[in-house]
Design brief:
Elements (H helix, E strand, L loop, with lengths): L4 H4 L12 H13 L5 E5 L6 H13 L13 H7 L6 E5 L6 H10 L10 E6 L6 H12 L5 E7 L7 H4 L3 E4 L5 H15 L2 E2 L1 H10 L4 H15 L2 E2 L1 H8 L4 H12 L3 H13 L4 H21 L8 H12 L3 H17 L8 H11 L3 H16 L51 H7 L1 H11 L1 H7 L4 E5 L2 E5 L3 H7 L2 H15 L4 E5 L16 H5 L2 H8 L38
Parallel strand pairs: 1-4, 1-5, 2-3, 3-4, 6-7, 9-10
Antiparallel strand pairs: 8-9
Helix pairs in contact: 3-4, 5-6, 8-9, 9-10, 9-11, 12-13, 12-14, 13-17, 14-15, 14-16, 16-17, 18-23, 20-21, 20-23
């Protein structure tokens, strides 16, 4: 039976440990100076060499060679440790030995002297999995260890280890392995295994492993079985379910152009051709991150060619920084949504569409543009130019006077005498007639705000101030949020053709009541058809109270329809 690559090519000396020079150099110096301590904590991501380094340290402290640079990997003790038959090297998997009894057994045995080696060496892997009681039992051993024992604790989650344990260990933090070092190591393994691996394939293997050398070696081992002695980029893409870099680039081009139809179509075709949605999202995120680095630091990824870098520089110019950051956040959220959705490509499609929608900065620019239009002195009839909403491209417009090329809203400019009017319709009537269109426009920009304002119809309009009657205090609170309020004001301003402000009131706000009066027009009240029906049933008109009209309906008669008949006993009957 052949041995897996990650076991066959496990580091056996400090020189073979990849990308952790800050750890290996410190341990080497400690060995030369004789400053070996009784407890070490090795923490870091998976596959970065924690357990391998612990075994190399066990070899070094027990090496029988006289050479100063240890381990020699040639003496009997080094061979015994490499072959897994050294009885004084004890490895414990804390994930399956979590109880206090397991640690008590360790504490009882650690006091015995080593059988063959100089030191009895304990490696406790995934030590963060120990229970609280087990940590307390281990603490005593760490406080007063026997002189012949060394303990190495390895973990991927050091934040779960009690501070009392951390403070008694010398800690080393392992880092994700750099791409360049990983490529060098993979090339060496491929050469010794007689594999012909294309450069692009090795690059994709290294990037897919996200800093884990063990993952990269396992993937190379799997590909050697899949493709034989020659491993191509296409084979790696087929096994991983990835797509070509050109497909990702084209998708980013659609995003830059805000071409939703082309982008969604390309997404669907790519996934239908066999691409894994999670892998595609991962590659898209990595590409967008590279554009962000190019835009902010002018430095591109080290693994791309100069030609690819030139293309990415041109792409980065098509995005402003705010929009690029927003897109990265959206696709990052899609990455977590992909793990739980029943529609594999839906989170990516939603992220793509939302990344093409107008941003808050655009809305703020439109808001400022409307304010500037409102404060601009009126021009003479000969100089006045009108731009209607929805005017087709190529129609007459006024060129912006500033160098700022931020898109401006298409707003109808009117003279002060005609502001708020269209024909003979009063402003409130115009607003109510266009309310459905206003809601639709708000929904396109923010569905949550539209859901709130749908229950907050306009009831009065005083100049540029529009009163919206909220259905509840909850609606009022949400609509008074700065972002929601600004969005509603911008859409209403675009529709009305001049700057508008909104304020939210509750149904009972502004109602006035007055005491009963004998001068009320009881006859007018009695003529109401509802009152007539009540009188025919034997009711009597008693007190009369005045209440404001419902915010959701308008009076239907010449007198106030909200006068109510109160029975003689003085109690309302509803």
């Amino acid at each position: 039976m052949s041995q897996a690559f990650y076991r066959k090519w496990r580091p056996r000396t400090f020189d073979e440990v990849v990308g952790q020079n800050h750890v290996t150099q410190t341990l080497r110096n400690a060995l030369k100076s004789g400053r070996i301590v009784h407890a070490y904590l090795l923490s870091g991501p998976r596959g970065t060499g924690k357990t391998s380094t612990a075994r190399i340290l066990a070899k070094a402290v027990n090496c029988l060679a006289e050479a100063e640079d240890k381990p020699c990997s040639a003496c009997a003790m080094c061979h015994a440790i490499d072959e897994g038959r050294a009885i004084d090297l004890i490895e414990i998997d804390a994930a399956s030995h979590t109880s206090v009894e397991d640690i008590r057994a360790l504490r009882d045995k650690i006091g015995f002297a080593p059988s063959e080696a100089r030191y009895k060496f304990y490696i406790i892997d995934e030590v963060h999995m120990l229970s609280k009681s087990a940590f307390n039992a281990l603490l005593k051993t760490l406080e007063e260890p026997p002189p012949h024992a060394i303990l190495v604790l390895a973990t991927t989650e050091p934040h779960k280890i009690p501070p009392t344990v951390l403070s008694r260990c010398q800690r080393f933090d392992f880092r994700p392995i750099p791409l360049k070092d990983m490529l060098t190591r993979l090339q060496g393994i491929a050469a010794q295994e007689g594999l012909e691996v294309h450069a692009g394939a090795l690059d994709l293997i290294a990037r897919q492993s996200t800093g884990s050398m063990r993952d990269a070696e396992s993937l190379l081992d799997q590909l050697s079985s899949f493709g034989g002695q020659e491993i191509t980029l296409e084979q790696v893409q087929t096994m991983l379910g990835t797509v070509s870099s050109q497909a990702v680039k084209d998708l980013v081009d659609d995003l830059a152009a805000c071409d939703v139809a082309s982008g969604l179509g390309r997404l669907g075709r790519t996934i239908a051709d066999g691409a894994d949605p999670q892998q595609l999202n991962k590659e898209l995120l990595e590409y967008l991150r590279s554009l962000l680095l190019i835009k902010t630091t002018s430095l591109g990824p080290s693994y791309i060619t100069p030609e690819q870098l030139a293309e990415m520089v041109e792409q980065a110019k098509k995005f402003d920084l705010d929009r690029l950051v927003t897109a990265i956040k959206l696709f990052s959220q899609a990455a977590s949504d992909l793990k739980s959705t029943t529609q594999p490509q839906l989170p990516m499609e939603l992220a793509f569409v939302e990344a093409t929608l107008p941003r808050e900065s655009d809305t703020a620019s439109q808001h400022r543009a409307i304010s500037a239009t409102e404060s601009k002195p009126s021009t003479s009839p000969s100089e006045e130019t009108t731009v209607t909403i929805g005017e087709p491209a190529g129609a007459s417009s006024v060129a912006p006077s500033s160098a700022d090329d931020t898109p401006r809203p298409k707003v109808m400019q009117e003279s002060p005498a005609s502001l708020g009017t269209e024909g003979n319709d009063p402003p409130l009537t115009r607003l109510q007639d266009n309310w459905t269109d206003i809601l639709a426009s708000i929904k396109r920009r923010n569905m949550h705000v539209e859901a709130i304002i749908r229950d907050c119809p306009p009831t009065t309009m005083d100049g540029e101030v529009i009163s919206l009657t909220a259905a509840s205090p909850f609606h009022k609170e949400k609509l008074e949020d700065d972002k929601a309020k600004r969005l509603v004001e911008d859409v209403i301003s675009e529709t009305m053709g001049h700057l508008c402000r909104i304020k939210c009131i509750l149904p009972r706000e502004g109602r006035k009541r007055r005491a009963p009066s004998q001068n009320d027009d009881l006859q007018a009240i009695a003529d109401d058809y509802m009152i007539k029906a009540g009188l025919e049933l034997g009711g009597k008109i008693g007190d009369v109270q005045l209440a404001g009209p419902s915010p959701h309906e308008q009076p239907a008669r010449s007198f106030h329809t909200d006068h109510r008949a109160v029975p003689a006993d003085g109690h309302d009957k509803e």
